[in-house]
Glycoside hydrolase family 5 domain-containing protein (Bremerella alba), 365 residues
Amino acid sequence: MKVTFAILFALILAPFASLAQEPLPRIVVSNDGKDFRQEGADKPFYVWGVNYDHNRDGKLIEDYWHDDWKVIEEDFDEIKSLGANVVRVHLQLPRFMKSANESNEKNLKKLTDLVKLAEDKELYLNLTGLGCYHKQDVPTWYDELKEADRWQVQANFWKAIAKACRDSAAVFCYDLMNEPVLGGGAKTDQWLVGEPLGGKYFVQRITIDAAGRDNKEIAAAWVKKLADAIREVDQHTLITVGAIPWAQVWPNAKPVFYSPEVSGPLDFVSVHFYPEKDKVDQAISALKVYDIGKPLVIEEFFPLKCSVEEAVQFLAEARPITDGVTSFYWGTTQEEYEEEGSMQGAILARWLERFQALTQAEATQ
């Protein structure tokens, strides 16, 4: 009788078991190296992402994920409703490294919770690392390190992150650093570059002393060191680096991080574009410089300096040579922006509306 009941119970549950959520397939580069695929699929995968770099109050995710986890869950639902499939999260080095060799296990655990949330919501994560966005949070011990020691801490950071996340296909990629630069600018003895934007330093130097080396030599050594640290523990997750497209500033500029001498360990190209008013053609020309035979993702995009119509035009003209675009979501919905009654709120609401329309149009193709 027990066997009979067991069989009956199994038969009753069988239909429900088939409804269980299938695990996310890993995103890989296609065999010809030109686009992305979900593992085992033939159809190209196009990234429709958002940068989730801070919340509506300007707080970085590590500043509130222990106390306000429910907010993150709600934001991921809202991101999903926009039609996005990738969330770019900006991880801060000071929150993950207690010292040069000791990682922060509490925040690594919370990161694995975030990965699980992404799995549950069927969203992929772009984990961008080594952030020092809030200068006041950067420890003195790190700021005073020489280049070689600083790079070693960065390698330790990435090894810890990759070890924590390697088993999840929801992690789309590791972005080594947001907008790394080499020389140039003022205060060249400082690691953080320029004036803060919204209180945040998004640009960071990888060296403050070239010591007779050229830019490509420095960049190649840095990329290899960090990529090697990741590959020690994770041989699958894609690696990239979010670059400033200097070809948009100087039309004859050539890529450094995506030059043949540097880009070997990088699986795809990530560049940040903010087209200017009446200069969509120039932006497209600059974008083509980064079409090097690897998948190409516009990793940051927003109509900051152009109209919404020009932004849509740029994306339409960029679509044939790109494999994804990542805009922004800061924890405020279209409806909430509209209720603000401000010019800025109206612009942000309109862009979210257009972004959602673009993702829906892509889904029907």
In short: The chain has a mean pLDDT of 93.
